[in-house]
Amino acid sequence: MSKDIADILEDAPSNWGRWGADDELGAVNYLTEEEVLRGVQAVEDGKTFTLGIPIGHPDGDPVWPGRSGADHYMEVDKGHFDAGKFDLDGAGGLEYADDVIYMFLQGTTQFDALGHVWYDEQLYNGFDATTTTGGLEHCSIEPMADHGVVGRGVLLDIARHRGKDWLVQGERIELEELLECADEQGVELQPRDIPIIRTGWIELFYEEGPEAFYGEEFDEPGITYSENLVEWFHEMEIPAFGTDTIANEQTVSDETETLLPLHGALLRDQGVTFNEINRLDELAADCADDGKYDFLYVGAPLKIVHATGSPVNPIVIK
Ligand code: UVW
């Protein structure tokens, strides 16, 4: 039987109440105007990178097992006009195309809302988990979408640091290695930064295909739970972090033997925003080339009412 996450995290640091009893924005509150300007100061040459993956890729989309990729279809196109299904009175020959996407909001590059994951019947800041029924009454994506997630980002290229194209199933990354990697790259991690951790894992999906990616038992590589790592996020006042994996952490923690404990310790307890399923290879190649690993990070989730998350195409400006 797996351990109880509430017992494991009993003494873990928390941000509940830090920004008031009604707060639903969490650690993104750290991203004040000063932090935005600190991000702007990291811009030197204006090079831009987008971190989103394609939505509706012909080989499918990389998603958490049990979810499905986007289903994209045409509601109206030239064929509909040629078949006489539309007659736009007064359009003078003007025609149009319309399409629809049916997808999991967590099924592409995305931000988790703070009410996406909980334990012990409570969401971030103590909201009752029953308020998620029928749509998130509290801690939906809306406060984050209203605020935006903008600050100084720092790439930590763990795949390159290990001399690999990508990490394999179950490989774990500890805090010490994140710090060593920053050191080796010659970049200083500062309080309120947005760490972007590259494992190469999403590249495996596109380069070797879904079978290699999912394997026999899905067990993603990633940062792993430790008291040190959780304390570090708290002391450094980390508002958000991104990775190129589906869930931003080792699937089953070696330490707790439970599924995704950092979702409990960081998202639910500290209100840290998770930006998942990024594609980081182009950004990483450029950072390796010019030796500059910090940048302005801009994440704009959609204002979807009562939603558990939102697709996002983060923009990085160097
Ligand atoms: C789960 O909800 C399982 O993970 P994610 O945060 O990746 O959506």
UniProtKB/TrEMBL annotation:
Signal peptide, first to last residue: none
SUPFAM superfamilies listed in its UniProt record: Putative cyclase
Stored InterPro entries: KFase/CYL (IPR007325), KFase_sf (IPR037175)
GO BP term, example: L-tryptophan catabolic process to kynurenine
Domain of life: Archaea
Gene3D superfamilies the UniProt entry points to: Putative cyclase
UniProt-recorded Gene Ontology molecular function terms: arylformamidase activity
Record protein name field: Kynurenine formamidase
Native organism taxonomy: Archaea, Methanobacteriati, Methanobacteriota, Stenosarchaea group, Halobacteria
